[in-house]
Amino acid sequence: ALTQDLAGRRVVVTAGGTREPLDPVRYLGNRSSGKQGYALAAIAAARGARVTLIAGNTELPDPAGVDVVPVGTARQLREAVLKAAVDADAVVMAAAVADFRPAVYMTGKIKKIDGEEPEPVTLVRNPDILAELSADRLRPGQVIVGFAAETDDVLANGRAKLARKGCDLLVVNEVGEHKAFGADRNEAVILATDGTETPVPFGPKEALAETLWDLVAPRLTDRPA
Ligand code: PMT
């Protein structure tokens, strides 16, 4: 990397999708590949940061020089993030965290019974980790970044989500066939609480990562000695 502007900084990045189990063999999941979060972690490390990457489901190899903490469910991801964030200058929530989980986990595999309809699956809410991190700032001056994956009214929903979640920056990406979930490329608008909106043109997920760290770096406060 040309710049070492994150030298001496500790950052936490989440990536990939969570899996919410129904029984020992089935889960509710999503199409996140982890590519965007892994690109963010790799670029931060290249710019000098000490990086903890909290990884939901993904097939990707660990980025060089990054501490990887694998997790399964949203609740496990929450535990891992809260632990790592205590000493972090910035936390970037690129993971696709499940909003809901099955209300009941069946310890035995759910059986198909002749002549009977299946039981409906009841869902309950998972904790909103981004909102909690933003409200409770585990370290003074910590910069919190959220993502918003939207399909309709992308910018309007993104602006509302920035206000609702209370984070400092929100990367709004539109879900599409060749961008966001699973793709190698992405396109976004990065919203800041000061009202600035930075468009990121369609391109490699690494380019979005560079632009995001460009916006995070000047917002970092001095680390107390
Ligand atoms: O992994 P890839 O295939 O590379 O795809 C990248 C991506 C599309 C998954 C990524 O760019 C992205 O948009 N990640 C966020 C996906 C998402 O869950 O968006 P959301 O709008 O549902 O959630 C908003 C924010 O709240 C996110 O920062 C999310 O991490 C966080 N969240 C959501 C739910 C929850 N219970 N707790 C959370 O902290």
Short key terms for the protein model shown above:
Rossmann fold; two-stranded antiparallel ribbon; eight-stranded mixed sheet; binds ligand PMT; 225 residues; globular
Summarize the structure.
This protein is α/β, with parallel strands linked by helices and 225 residues long. It has 5 helices and 12 strands.
What does this structure look like?
With 225 residues, the chain is of the alpha/beta class. It has a single domain (10-219), classed as 3-Layer(aba) Sandwich (Rossmann fold), CATH 3.40.50. Helices cover 25% and strands 28% of the residues. The protein is built from five helices and twelve strands. It has helices spanning 35-46, 74-85, 129-136, 154-165, 205-216, and strands at residues 10-15, 20-23, 26-28, 50-55, 67-70, 90-93, 100-102, 123-125, 143-150, 169-174, 185-192, 197-204. An eight-stranded mixed β-sheet has the order 5-4-1-6-9-10-11-12, with helices on both faces. Strands 2-3 form a two-stranded antiparallel ribbon. Strands 7-8 form a two-stranded antiparallel ribbon. A hairpin with a 2-residue loop joins strand 2 and strand 3 (26-28). Helix 1 (35-46) packs across helix 5. The protein is globular. The chain starts with 9 loop residues before the first strand and ends in a 9-residue tail after the last helix. Bound molecules: ligand PMT. Ligand PMT binds next to helix 1, helix 3 and strand 9. This is Coenzyme A biosynthesis bifunctional protein CoaBC. Keywords: Decarboxylase, Flavoprotein, FMN, Ligase, Lyase, Magnesium, Metal-binding, Multifunctional enzyme. Its EC number is 4.1.1.36, 6.3.2.5. CTP binds at residues 99, 109, 127-130, 147, 161, 165.
